[in-house]
UniProtKB/TrEMBL annotation:
InterPro entries xref list: EryCIII-like_C, Glycosyltransferase_28, UDP_glucos_trans
Alphabetical keyword list: Transferase
Residues covered by the Erythromycin biosynthesis protein CIII-like C-terminal domain: 305-417
Gene Ontology MF, one: UDP-glycosyltransferase activity
Stored Pfam families: EryCIII-like_C (PF06722)
PANTHER family: STEROL 3-BETA-GLUCOSYLTRANSFERASE, STEROL 3-BETA-GLUCOSYLTRANSFERASE UGT80A2
The protein, known as: Glycosyltransferase
Superkingdom of the source species: Bacteria
GO biological process assignments: antibiotic biosynthetic process
Alphabetical list of SUPFAM superfamilies matching this protein: UDP-Glycosyltransferase/glycogen phosphorylase
Keyword Transferase: yes
C-alpha cells in the first residue's frame, strides 16, 4: 500500500475534511502522514495519523476566524472582507479577488523548500493536496511528485474549461443574481487574477524547475491523476470533457458522535419548549455577521411557538447572549454533525461542508450565501430541492418563517432520495478508490461513472 502525505492549509473548514479523508486512507491500508500547521496536530491524532508540521500560508483559521492569532495585516484583510460582505455578493467577491495574492501565493519559494524537505524525510509515494493550496500544488508540480487533488466546497473550484475562472461563481441562486454591470466588473477582476497568477506560476516554474513542463493556467493546475470531491454527483455540474479520475464522495464528514450529557440536556430542554429544532451556523468566518444571525433568530422565534433554535455564534456569542432563552441556545461553537441528527432544519451560509452535512442527514436548509463558492452551492441546494435561498443583506425577520416553511415543506421525496445517495458514499468509499488509483497510477482517467456529465 502507498505511503501518502496529505497536505492541508491551516483552515479548520479545510483541515477537518482532509483529516477525515486521510483517516479513511489509513483505514484502506495506506501509511498516511498529515501535514499542516502545528495548531492542527490534534486533528491528526483524532484520525490516528502521523503528523508533519508544515505551514503553507501566513493566513489561518483554527475554528473562529476573528479569534485566531494573526498578524495585523491578515487581521485587517479579514475585517475588510467582512465589511465587503455587508455591501453584497459582488463587493465580497471583489474584495476576495483583491486579496488573492496574499491569501494564496504569499511565499511559494518557502513552500517549495518545505515540501522538498518533507519529501526527503518521509519519502511518500503520493501526496494529497487541497485544490486551494496553490503554492503546494505548484511546488509538487515543480518537484515532479505524484499527487491527487482534494477539492473542498463546490466542484467548480476545479476549472471546467477556458471560460471558467476562479472567483467567478459558476451559477447564481435566483435571489442573488448580480446586475450586469457588477458581473462585468467581477469578471474583469478574476480574469486579471487568472493572467497575473499564470504569469507568476510560469516564471516560478521556469526559475526553479526549467526541465519540467509549464504549469499552464495557474488556477487550473490540478492533479492529472485523480480528484476527490467531498460533494455529491449532481447531474448539472460543469465538468471538463476529459481529465483525471474524479471521485464524487457525496460528503467528507466523519460519522456523527453522540451528543454529550451537556448538549443532550440542552436539547431536551429545547424540545420541551419548542418541538422543532433549527440549527443556525455560518461557519468559521461568517459567524462575525452577527447582524444576520440576530435577524434569523428573531424571525425563527417570533414566527412559530413550536420552534427552538441553536446558534453557533463564534466570537459574537456574548453580543447575542440576550437571544438565549427557553427556546434558544447561543454558543460559541456547536457539535454540528451530532445536532443535525436531531434537527428539523438548518440555516447556513452555503459552505460546502454545511451543505453536504445537511444532505447526509436529510435536513432541509435556508441558505444565506455571502461569498466564495457559496453562491454556486446555494444554487445547487435550490436546484436539488434541498433548501430555499435568500439574500442575507436584505433579509428581514419577517422573511424567515415563510422561508423556513418553504424549506421544510417543499423538499419531501427529492431530498430523501438525494440524502440516501449521499450516504451510500462518503470518505471510505473515496479512499478505497483513491488507494486503488495510487497502486496503479496512470496519467489521466475517466470521470467517476456515477458523476455528472458535460453539459
Amino acid at each position: 500500500m502507498p505511503r501518502v502525505v496529505v497536505v492541508s492549509p491551516p483552515f479548520l473548514s479545510h483541515a477537518r475534511p482532509l483529516s477525515v479523508l486521510a483517516g479513511a486512507l489509513r483505514e484502506s491500508g495506506a501509511e498516511v502522514h498529515f501535514a499542516c500547521a502545528p495548531a492542527f496536530e490534534p486533528l491528526a491524532r483524532e484520525a490516528g495519523l502521523r503528523f508533519v508540521p508544515l505551514s503553507v500560508t501566513r493566513n489561518a483559521n483554527t475554528g473562529v476566524a476573528e479569534s485566531t492569532r494573526q498578524d495585523a495585516e491578515e487581521a485587517a484583510r479579514l475585517r475588510a472582507f467582512l465589511d465587503a460582505t455587508r455591501e453584497g455578493a459582488v463587493a465580497a467577491l471583489l474584495a476576495q479577488a483583491r486579496h488573492r495574492h496574499a491569501d494564496l501565493l504569499a511565499d511559494p519559494e518557502g513552500v517549495l523548500e518545505a515540501l522538498r524537505a518533507v519529501d526527503l524525510e518521509v519519502r511518500p509515494d503520493w501526496y494529497v493536496v487541497d485544490q486551494l493550496s496553490y503554492p503546494v500544488t505548484l511546488a509538487l508540480h515543480c518537484l515532479g511528485l505524484r499527487y491527487a487533488t482534494f477539492c473542498p466546497g463546490h466542484p467548480s473550484y476545479v476549472l471546467s474549461g477556458p471560460d471558467a475562472f476562479f472567483g467567478l461563481p459558476s451559477a447564481w441562486p435566483d435571489a442573488l443574481r448580480p446586475e450586469p454591470g457588477g458581473l462585468t466588473e467581477l469578471r474583469a477582476a478574476v480574469e486579471r487574477n487568472d493572467a497575473d497568477f499564470t504569469a507568476l506560476f510560469t516564471a516560478f516554474a521556469r526559475r526553479f524547475a526549467p526541465s519540467r513542463p509549464a504549469p499552464g493556467r495557474a488556477f487550473a493546475l490540478t492533479s492529472p491523476h485523480a480528484v476527490v470531491h467531498g460533494y455529491p454527483a449532481l447531474p448539472w455540474l460543469p465538468v471538463p470533457s476529459a481529465g483525471p479520475l474524479r471521485l464524487f464522495a457525496g460528503h467528507m464528514a466523519a460519522p456523527p458522535e453522540r451528543l454529550d450529557a451537556e448538549w443532550g440536556g440542552r436539547l431536551g430542554r429545547l424540545r420541551a419548549h419548542g418541538g422543532r429544532l433549527v440549527l443556525v451556523a455560518f461557519g468559521t468566518f461568517l459567524s462575525a455577521r452577527d447582524d444576520v444571525l440576530r435577524t434569523v433568530v428573531r424571525g425563527l422565534l417570533a414566527g412559530a411557538r413550536d420552534v427552538s433554535v441553536v446558534v453557533a455564534a463564534g466570537d459574537r456569542a456574548d453580543a447575542l447572549a440576550d437571544l438565549a432563552g427557553d427556546r434558544s441556545v447561543v454558543a460559541r461553537s456547536v457539535p454540528q454533525r451530532a445536532l443535525l441528527e436531531h434537527a428539523d432544519a438548518m440555516v447556513h451560509h452555503g459552505g460546502g461542508n454545511s451543505f453536504t452535512e445537511c444532505l447526509r442527514a436529510g435536513v432541509p436548509a435556508l441558505v444565506l450565501p455571502f461569498s466564495s463558492d457559496q453562491f454556486a452551492v446555494a444554487r445547487d441546494a435550490e436546484r436539488a430541492g434541498a433548501g430555499v435561498v435568500l439574500d442575507p443583506n436584505t433579509l428581514s425577520a419577517s422573511d424567515v418563517p415563510a422561508a423556513l416553511a418553504g424549506a421544510t415543506e417543499g423538499p419531501g421525496r427529492r431530498l430523501a432520495a438525494l440524502a440516501a445517495r449521499v450516504r451510500e458514499r462518503g470518505p471510505r468509499w473515496a479512499a478505497d478508490r483513491l488507494s486503488t488509483a495510487m497502486e496503479s497510477p496512470t496519467r489521466g482517467g475517466p470521470v467517476d461513472s456515477a458523476g455528472p456529465s458535460p453539459r
